[in-house]
Amino acid sequence: FESSKIHITGLIVSEYSWEHSHWAAQKSLADWLKENNIPGMYGVDTRDLTKKLREHGSILGRVEVGKELSIPQSIPDNFFTDCNKRNLVAEVSTKTVTIYGKGNANKIIAYDCGMKYNIIRYLVQTHKVELAVVPFDYDLEANPSNLEWEGLFLSNGPGDPTMCAKTIKSIEYALSMNPPKPIFGICLGNQLLGLAAGAQTYKLKYGNRGMNQPCIDLRTGRCYITSQNHGYAVDADSLPSMWKSLFINANDNSNEGIIHTYKPFFSVQFHPEASGGPYDTAFLFEKFVGHVRSIPQPLLLQNISPYTMKTYKKVLVVGSGGLSIGQAGEFDYSGSQCIKALKEEGIEVILINPNIATVQTSQEKTSLHHEADRVYFLPIRAAVVMDIIDKEKPDGIIVSMGGQTALNVGVELWKEGLLQAAGVEVLGTQIPVIEATEDREIFSTKLKEIGETIALSYSATSIPDAIIAANKIGYPVLVRAAFALGGLGSGFAADDGELKELAAKAFSASSQILIDQDLRGWKELEYEVVRDCNDNCVTVCNMENFDPLGIHTGDSIVVAPSQTLSNREYFMLRATALKVVRHLGIVGECNIQYALHPESERYCIIEVNARLSRSSALASKATGYPLAYVATKLSLGKDLATIRNSVTKITTACFEPSLDYCVLKMPRWDLKKFQRVSKQLGSSMLSVGEVMAIGRSFEEVIQKACRMVNPALDGLEGHDSNLTPDEDDIPLEKQLQTPTDTRLFAVQAALEDGWSIDKVHELTKIDKWFLSKLKNIATLRQSCKDGTYKGLLSVKAEARMRSLKVAGFSDRQIGRYFSVPEAEIRSTRKLLGVFPSVKQIDTLAAEFPAQTNYLYMTYSGRHDDVTEASDTPQIQTPQIQTKKLADCRSISSTEFHKRARGMSFGKSATSKLDDFKSSGVMVLGCGAYCIGSSVEFDWCAVSAVRQLRRDGIKSVIVNYNPETVSTDYDESDRLYFEELSLERVLDIYERESVAGIIVSVGGQIPNNLAGPLAECGAKILGTSARDIERAEDRRQFSDMLDDMNLQQPAWSVLRSKEEAIAFAEKVGYPVLIRPSFVLSGAAMRVAIDDEQLKNFLSLAADVAADKPVVVTKFILEAKEIEFDAVANNGIILNYAIGEHLENAGVHSGDATVILPAQKLYVNTIRQVKRYASAIAKALRITGPFNIQYMAKGNDVQVIECNLRASRTFPFVSKTLKNNFISLATRAMCGLDPKPYRISLLDIDYVCVKAPMFSFTRLRGADPTLGVEMASTGEVACFGDDMHEAFMQALLASTFKLPKKGGSILLSIAASAFRAEFSEGVNILHKLGYKLYGTPGTAHYYNKKFNVGMISVTKPVSESDDGTDDNPSALKVIKNSEIEMLINISDGSFEKAEITAGYLMRRSCVDFGISLVTNVKCASVLAECLERGLDKFSSKHIGDFYNLPTIGYHET
Questions:
Q1: Nearest Cα to 185, choosing from 230, 221, 237?
Q2: Structure confidence at residue 357 (pLDDT)
């Protein structure tokens, strides 16, 4: 403790946890307050209270306990107790003289004006002085106790310093002594010293309070984070001569310390001793004691870096490439922020990134947004980057914004001396520092130098070395690949056998592996740290994993700020983070991860990521602190103190954000898409995306996050989620013990079943505090189920409804408990006056006015941070508005002027634009990234918002994905980091009073909301909700095509399995099962017999819920065609036709797409356009849409139509140099859009889009392609012809080409495929490759072409190596005797059994061997190798746009 008793008279908090769980806790806060007779109050909107104090200054208050609130009409004088009129120092000061550390050398007198005990500890225990603590009014000149003293300390204390006249008089005496004796003051002591010196003090309006106040040392320019709690300050302008300001506040420039120019007198306004931390300025005690001991103090001077800062003219930014598990959209966000920061400094920016779906690769330059000057869509490889450097000759290179891919390239170029030779400077953290964090042995040595340790760990470069290391540590151990992303190639080994297997796979990803101590069960924590070249260092965000150590942080629920640490633990780890980052020499941003023992203060450092990471994007969005932007500025030599906080606009970036809310990140997995993939989570990341929920209670954010991850969920529920396995198959206890993608719901099921928190904790090692919060949710759920709707509303209805909403329950969830429609719950809630309040993310917990549009909604508050639109529309609920969806057509662009904003039919486009500007448009974002919905939809949302802003239209975006650019607060006029649910979208729609909602740029989630929103009276811009339904509903769409006589494969709607089988027998197998309203072909399957058809129909019915499931004839050997377009009132404005390289049967998201199409018949193109025109007219399309066709010969058939942007929109927009989404946005807003001038025949280059897969992480998954999408990302490259573009795109997808003269294994099942690849085999043979083949394949090609193919046997099991004389294909793969496998199976149909093909394909993935599974791709690859296209030329996108052409020219 810091004093002998509690000095406050009451405590007010926002939320209180009744269950405490920390190992060091002696009693609860409530018990402690009760023992001391101090009232406490929770459930108060403390943010709003802070704002009132900020606006009005410190104000008097009163807490009424135990009676109804009664405020008299006229306030009597004694109603409030005015502490400002009392001499508070006299009340808290000691009454006697006390000696501490008697006998210690050097005697110091300390004036106790309310002195904290930690000051005594610092002086007596740390610095070994004898300290005499005297009352505040002790007469120093008279010295009645005859105290000997060599130095004077002035303590902190409360109230007005001018009331301490006797103290000031004694200080004046001390100042007059000759020779002078050292004086040091803290907080009130600073004010007292100033008054004694002759200066003035004044009362601050609000005061500086908190543990994150930035103060600049005027001697060095260094900025320190300090703890403060004061309402008065020294007026620096009144300081007499010979006195100067020592520190100033970096935010408001108020005085934070004074110093005499030549005598040993100084003081500071903050608390360097703060027991709660931070301890960054504790060195001031050492300075004071040094003066007392006559130790010469070092001369402190400003760093010369501001005067030697280098200027850069051109910088190369290295991107991350295609999205994969472990390296996703967060690097588009960080790269975009980096480019923005560079362009603000007038620097020419060159970008290499083949990910065409990203925002950062856009080339539309506007006054509002900064883009790279030149973009290279090329493979991110060392040779390519070096070629660009030779061409562009940049001054600097940034490799910290592109994930591990960019970092590895930078390290390679540095090690080879190529960057140094080219005179290119690595900006930010230097390569040797990066190597020190990536190489385990160097890292361990570095930490030992400062007395820190990592978990017991050894590196190994061979399997025997790994076994020795593991036995030194003791099993179980964690095996990891060095220099790998997202835990790639890692896992836990329990014995030598498991270690050998894991090590072999890890060595395929890296030349060095790491053997680590197993710390499963410990807490895992992260700190995001920023440091500049002036050694200013701050921790921006700390985060805590919900799951204990053992699960990769990318697969764990993460909470910010940490919830279960004590203040001591928090600052202990913070201090370590600063020490480590300074010692390593990091400049910019980094992430440090800890393992903390759950029942002690033992900890070890897991790792430091010396680059922007997934956690960095999360921390940026969680705090509002733009880490990538700031890190880029720092890499240019700027210091933190001079960079402004871009949220408040007036405070410095050298601060540590305050969070008056809770943030929770929840991963999104797509493991169900893959057969044989284990659902168990471990050290290798498996999630494909994540969501971030913001609220003011843990219960609220975890329920929000569940709905965000899976829109089918109503909240966090156990059994009702239908996500937990059957307990007959896997007992609940086992489900809790094994971390999986559904364990959270199993935990909730156990708590709902009445399991104790202790029992669940024992099985899961999840902290009891978190479990107590989940128990609260379970308890509230059960009380609803046990009660009635009438009972809910009978007594204290408003309070009961609000308690459910505060705990995160949705209207739909509450309605289900009481068997009441969601609409009725919403209507009743509003009648009760229970509305969500809107709060800002402002980085400083309302202590400073924030100019931010970054918002969230919560029920833990009664007041809004932003003003409500004056003309808020009153939305009717479906139960009141009885029109059916068919009669409730949402507004189209031609009808948009009917909106109740004074629009009329007679208004011109200009007039409508004026109306738009005041009311605005809401854009619904993409939600969590998943397979099928990724960064391409974020590009679409950003493009829509940017077009709205170009047209001067207010934009409101709703999204909850922290990896996205659309959730960057300066992209839109208002950003709601919120759920994409009907309830929340209506809340925002009503509150913002927007003119309409764009649902067609965010993928399937917002598109599926069109109907429900329209039913509720919301205005859907563009294509009507009714027409969207006609396209999404497989039955309605197929009926429409039949009515229009447009060809499609034979089809039938599912009514029963028997009917489906009869249909399949009629048209012949194979058949395709297609659910409605799904993304990325979810549950889409090709069945080849009755048994498969029955199984797949069951799966499709589960996914489609109550929507139709259609069975169609599957056409073999057909070409698939993509048609992307924008229409206005059913008339197509612009279109693009791309062709798939692979035949139909490969999902469009997994296909290689060529644009412009190269091998389509003229008649085929004519039919495609004719069909598209008819469909656009029939569905009255306004906005973006995509149609997929299949063509066999000249016979064209329609597969499907999506009345929204598709994943190919950024691809076609960037290839054709015209943004299709910008055009669609103008069409949807009725702004008379003009078509772009595009002639596909006059484009003299080709762009090829290739998929990116993450099979290396999905252990057991079959790396082959089918009708359900499996890719996690995409890349695209340009070329003068298709072959050049294909080869670059293939290399950009991280494909490794076989070396000249290398070995290639072929296994081609069907004779037709063997014949088709005959030319390819001859090419490979002619090029000198050594060819292996499975028996049938080798026999076929040797007999036909005599290519000398070596036969290897087909494996029958995972352990089948064959014999020495006749090895199996598996053996040559495992021994790396081959460099590429071409394996063409007999069709794109799933097989339940493990085949030889599966064993070969899976082994290639596990051992890092290149794999080709499609005959079309294999043939083109062979042709590329024959043409020598493994070479490349560094052309940026502008080089292709500027190719001379015949046809049209831009004017």
A1: 230
A2: 94
